[in-house]
Specification:
The chain is of the alpha/beta class. It starts with 7 loop residues before the first strand and ends in an 8-residue tail after the last helix. Among the domains are: about 40-205, 3-Layer(aba) Sandwich (Rossmann fold), CATH 3.40.50.300; about 405-490; about 500-625, Serine Threonine Protein Phosphatase 5, Tetratricopeptide repeat (Alpha Horseshoe), CATH 1.25.40.10; about 630-718, Serine Threonine Protein Phosphatase 5, Tetratricopeptide repeat (Alpha Horseshoe), CATH 1.25.40. The strands form three sheets. It has a five-stranded parallel β-sheet. A three-stranded antiparallel β-sheet has the order 1-2-3. It comes from Streptomyces humidus.
């Protein structure tokens, strides 16, 4: 502390105001500052599996889109709209393949079906268009506007581009952050079911409807050329409403009947006469005649019947299980787990999946270097609606077990992990599907742990969105005061704090803590977890005494409830090293607090996240106590450990190096202190921008060192 009146960032990242009106915290999570493996590559190809054999009856649309791209005029937004299964994505994919294969134009493909997918995809676009690791890290952590970074990179792209925002069926998420913009360097193509002009001001809208009769028949003939004549195919197409998705499913079925092939007429007769396809209406929302789920339901039920006849009931079971999840890429590794045994034998999963792939009921896609299965949303909705009620408990339980195994059991701080984000839409979709309170509680517990894992890799926007939405979905079955709902809301408050919403986070965390204390007691682990999050917020709102009092109560409660060697107990004590003034650090716990790093080492090991954090805070306390040589040795070791684990540009690394600069300066090594701070400021400028408070605070400290070096030394002579 300098005692000055201007706020400045100290080495643990806090900005102190000596007059007490503000207390801001720079976030330091423990993760890696390195590129996302597979991230940029994932936006260079459409995540749509197999393209259609031929694109039928879209020549006029394609010519218009092709001409707009070929003119080299940027700044346009085109919106392809229509009902699910109409082939909007197929048109976008065809244009994407053309412009990237025949023109000197970069293609960028983003799944915009939910906030987390949109944000991750757009940041991958920024990485592809030249964003630096520090810029991406700051945007990912919520320290700078992510959309601004993306569009700055698109505007300065050396190559023209086509950006596809696929499955934008909730266009309101584009406004949350201003993701949809225009640029003279490229063209934006959106696919959506939502056609209201208010969502797409200034865009050119193009309706994608069902196919004309002749072209619909050709789709069936493309896929199953030996199953019947064009006229027979046309009659089947009429029965299927000429919806491309339904035609694709029907063609896939007809093309794979080898022992006893079906004809088009036989298939059409089954569509007309089999009442089992009406299962689509059982337990579903009321459907209009135009709802595409009617049309898709006519096709997949016949396919599942064929699986049963061929001795493959597992394929039907697997499809019903996939329908508990979202219509987003689902990592195949998730299915390779014993938890699937409640629905189908694990040894038969491979065969069942291959059957679904052969019949076009699912596709293989590669996302961020992860092999995934993906099925169309309309198909999954129809399968889910038709699933007999007596089967849903086992399906929900299996889906929860599979997700539970895919999420780290004890999430730890670490580098950004894009594969975690792949699980978010599936966790939320499962919470939308479940109908029993016990299943909802289990699914919410997994979703909350997923939010913690995202939080600890620094993906705070995804962590906040996951926990907030999961709590809202589960509350309908569990009620607002259920333990798991309150725990999820507590995690949402923690993520909101990291995103800078201090006032909102305080209100949310205080409400949650009051409810938990009344229901479970003040020393319940959930109550204490919320208390720990609340004291962080209070400290950053300048209410230091209240924060310290709550932190001390949290330490006492965790020591009693969890034991002295529990990581959460040790972490809370390490926070006291950071929060207390020097005099109190010496007297706290009879002086035992200053030996905390050795305790952490003994209980957790030297490389544990909590141990490293305790040593960092201990070095800060030593610096405040004027024990500069000891502080210098410790923070140097901590900084080196951080670099090995997280990379050189990570926020906590920069904070450690800033403290190291202080200890070097205090020991008289001003030039070395300047050298350290030059790097810290440069990295913060690249990642956060020159006007960010953390950058400004670092620059102020650097200026202080430089002025100290230039200050003439006092001498006793004349």
């Amino acid at each position: 502390m300098t005692g000055g009146t201007d706020g400045h960032a100290e080495d643990q990242g806090r900005v102190y105001q000596a007059r007490g009106d503000q207390h801001i915290s720079e976030h330091h999570h423990y993760g890696g500052d390195r590129p996302e493996h597979g991230g940029p590559d994932s936006v260079r190809r459409p995540a749509v599996g197999r393209p259609p054999v031929a694109l039928r009856d879209r020549s006029e649309v394609m010519e218009r889109l092709r001409a707009s791209v070929e003119t080299e005029r940027g700044g346009q937004v085109y919106v392809l709209y229509g009902m699910g299964g109409s082939g909007k994505t197929a048109v976008a994919c065809a244009l994407f393949e053309e412009v990237t294969g025949e023109q000197d134009r970069v293609g960028l493909w983003v799944n915009a079906s939910d906030r987390a997918s949109l944000r991750a995809g757009m940041l991958a676009v920024a990485a592809d268009r030249g964003a630096g690791d520090g810029e991406l890290l700051a945007a990912r952590n919520g320290l700078r506007p992510a959309a601004d970074l993306v569009w700055t990179c698109l505007d300065r792209s050396a190559e023209p581009w086509l950006l596809v925002l696929d499955n934008t069926d909730e266009p309101e998420i584009l406004r949350d952050g201003d993701w949809l913009r225009t640029s003279p360097r490229g063209t934006v193509l959106v696919t959506t079911r939502r056609a209201a002009a208010r969502w797409w001001p200034g865009a050119e809208l193009q309706y994608i409807g069902v196919l004309p009769r002749e072209d619909a028949a050709l789709v069936l003939r493309d896929l199953a050329p030996h199953s019947g004549t064009t006229e027979q195919a046309a009659r089947v197409a009429d029965r299927l409403g000429r919806l491309p998705l339904a035609l694709t499913l029907a063609g896939g079925f007809l093309s794979h009947q080898v022992i006893d092939p079906w004809t088009m007429d036989a298939y059409g007769d089954q569509l007309d006469g089999d009442e089992r396809v009406q299962l689509i209406d059982r337990g579903a929302d009321v459907l209009s005649e135009a709802d595409p789920r009617h049309l898709v339901g006519l096709t997949w039920q016949l396919t599942l019947d064929a699986f049963e006849a061929r001795g493959l009931p597992e394929a039907a079971a697997l499809l019903r299980l996939l329908a508990r999840f979202a219509a987003e890429p689902l990592p195949l590794a998730l299915l390779n787990h014993e938890g699937i045994g409640g629905v189908l034998p694990r040894a038969r999963t491979e065969t069942a999946l291959r059957a679904l792939l052969d019949q076009s009921l699912s596709e293989l896609v590669d996302v961020v270097g992860t092999r995934c299965a993906q099925s169309h949303g309309v198909l999954l909705d129809s399968v889910c609606a038709a699933t007999p009620a007596e089967l849903t408990p086992a399906l929900d339980a299996a889906a929860v077990r599979l997700l539970d195994a895919a999420v780290p059991g004890t999430p730890d701080a670490g580098p950004h992990e894009p594969r975690l984000r792949l699980l978010v839409p599936h966790a939320l979709a499962l919470l939308r599907r479940v109908g029993e309170p016990s299943a909802a509680a289990d699914a919410l517990a997994v979703a909350t742990r997923l939010s913690v894992a995202l939080h600890r890799t620094g993906d705070y926007p995804s962590a906040w969105e996951t926990s907030r939405t999961a709590a809202d979905l589960a509350q309908r079955l569990l009620g607002a005061d259920h333990r798991t709902v309150l725990a999820a809301r507590s995690r949402a408050g923690r993520a909101l704090f990291r995103l800078g919403g201090f006032v909102e986070a305080e209100s949310l965390l205080r409400d949650v803590r009051t409810a938990q204390e009344g229901l479970f007691g003040a020393d319940d682990p959930d109550t204490l977890d919320t208390s720990y999050g609340l004291q962080l917020v209070l400290a950053n709102l300048g209410r230091r005494e209240e924060s310290v009092a709550l932190l001390r109560a949290t330490v006492a409660g965790r020591r009693s409830a969890l034991g002295p060697g529990h990581p959460l107990t040790l972490r809370a004590r390490a926070s006291l090293l950071e929060m207390l003034p020097a005099a109190d650090v010496v007297s706290e716990e009879g002086g035992a607090l200053l030996t905390l790093p050795s305790e952490c080492d003994r209980f957790l090991g030297p490389d544990h996240t909590v141990t490293l954090g305790a040593r960092h805070n201990h070095a800060w306390a030593l610096y405040l106590l004027g024990r500069f040589a000891e502080a210098d040795r410790e923070i140097r070791q901590v900084a080196e450990a951080y670099v090995r684990r997280f990379g050189p540009g990570y926020p906590i690394v920069l904070a450690a190096r800033q403290l190291l600069s202080r200890t070097r300066a205090a020991l008289g090594h001003t030039d070395e202190a300047i050298e350290l701070m030059v790097e810290v400021v440069a990295r913060r400028e690249r990642g956060l921008g020159p006007e960010h408070p953390f950058t400004v605070a670092g620059r102020r400290l650097l200026d202080e060192y430089r002025s100290r070096r230039l200050r003439p030394s006092r001498s006793s002579g004349g």
